[in-house]
Amino acid sequence: MTQPIAVLTGDIIDSRRIADSQHLHGVLDDALDRLASHHGGRYERFRGDGFQLAVPHAEAALEIAVALRAYLIMHGKTRRWDARVAVAIGQDTWQPDTALAAADGPVFVTSGQCLDALDDDAHLALSLVDAPEDAGLDLLIRYVDELIEGWSRHAAEIIHLRLWHDESQQALAERLGIRQPSVHKRLRTARWTLLADTLEFFRSRLAMEGPSS
User: Fold this and answer.
1) What are the pLDDT digits (tens) for 59-111?
2) CA distance 72 to 67
3) Cβ distance 147 to 191 under 8 Å?
């Protein structure tokens, strides 16, 4: 039986220039493990800085990509940590208890091909395997990518917290040990309101890739 799945394939940007690779890989594993557990999926790492994550909840795909990159950026202290991420969505028979190394359906192949096709200035891509190309979606993906590129560590941290905790600004301030106005400033600098609306749009749009599409 097929189901709509999302496959995210990626790698760390300029990983060879990062001295503390052990710490970097630990942070990457933490992010992937948490996202896989939360969304009922599975992940594997390969070639050191490469990774693949598959989840059965395709509608959350872009939010997962944003959360992963935010987590990396917030942990890069001496230099920026980030990843290229290619997302593919489509129907597949893959189940979360199946190893990703053996998965070779169109969604997995497309995700890898999208990653290979990313140019030097792009770090995010989305492909809908069973749908025609959509210039509007491509433009929004470029917007989200540019938005992430502009984040500082503090901006990435507040986005990370906001994605995982639907709380008031005061509650977020208490988590960070800062004042509420500082949280408001960081959310505004990170363009949280626009990002949240964009993610909600993608959640609704990608849900249409299910069995009824």
Assistant:
1) 999 999 999 999 999 999 888 999 999 999 999 999 998 889 888 899 999 99
2) 9
3) yes
